[in-house]
Design a protein that fits this description.
Layout: H1 16-32, E1 47-48, E2 59-64, E3 70-74, H2 78-91, H3 98-104, E4 109-110, H4 117-122, H5 145-161, E5 170-175, H6 181-193, E6 200-201, E7 204-205
Parallel strand pairs: 1-7, 2-5, 5-6
Antiparallel strand pairs: 2-3, 3-4
Length: 209
């Protein structure tokens, strides 16, 4: 009885389609990845079990370090930051040039008083975290510069959104775990003066017991 010959099949696998899919996925993740914002100061936040996340845009962040110094930041919105800086420049005679206003659009967060702002913007990007520029934004009632930043940021944000918008920006307080309660209380009072009664506290996720 003759043997039946089993036809040989090629063991080669065409991986072209798989490579195309891999490169498409890689490109997608590169384009959609949100990098960590460049913050003026690093703070160790208190722990909590909350897993809620802040949105990527339209977030105003107030940072408080362990010494009670306040910082302010607007992330991932260069046009808004330039608009805010232009408004502050006009309102408080800061004498900033268009180049300096454009430089502000690249800054994530800051902690300089208005009197030192021109020096901050003219410094090299790598030098802007120098302690001489990070003395904190005044929050006392006599010179409430943080309130001025919040006011002008809100005005610029609503203008860009349109007068009919029902959206509100997200506000976050990122306080060092050793920051004093009176400072945090003062920050909340400044936000409430602008009718910002909803805000989030940034915390470090900790495991449940």
């Amino acid at each position: 009885m003759p043997k039946v010959k089993i036809p040989r099949k090629s063991t080669l696998v065409d991986m072209t389609a798989m490579c195309d899919v891999s490169f498409l996925l890689l490109t997608f993740f590169i384009l959609t990845t949100q990098f960590k914002p460049d913050e003026a100061v690093t703070v160790q936040t208190p722990g909590s079990i909350s897993k809620s996340k802040l949105p990527d845009v339209d977030v105003f962040t107030v940072i408080v370090d362990s010494a009670g110094r306040a910082y302010f930041g607007i992330y991932n919105h260069e046009v808004l930051k330039k608009t805010v800086m232009s408004a502050m420049n006009d309102a408080y005679d800061m004498n900033l040039t268009p180049e300096e206003i454009n430089a502000f659009g690249k800054i994530g967060s800051f902690g300089a008083p208005l009197s030192q702002f021109k020096n901050l913007l003219n410094a090299e990007p790598t030098d802007r975290k120098d302690p001489k520029f990070m003395t904190g934004i005044p929050i006392d009632t006599a010179s409430n510069e943080l309130g001025k930043w919040v006011t002008n940021s809100l005005d610029a944000w609503y203008i860009m959104q349109g007068v009919e918008t029902k959206k509100v920006p997200s506000v976050a307080i990122k306080g060092h775990k050793n920051a004093g309660y009176p400072v945090i209380k003062r920050i909340i009072a400044i936000l409430q003066e602008e009718n910002l009664n909803k805000f989030k506290f940034v915390t470090e996720l900790k495991a449940k017991n």
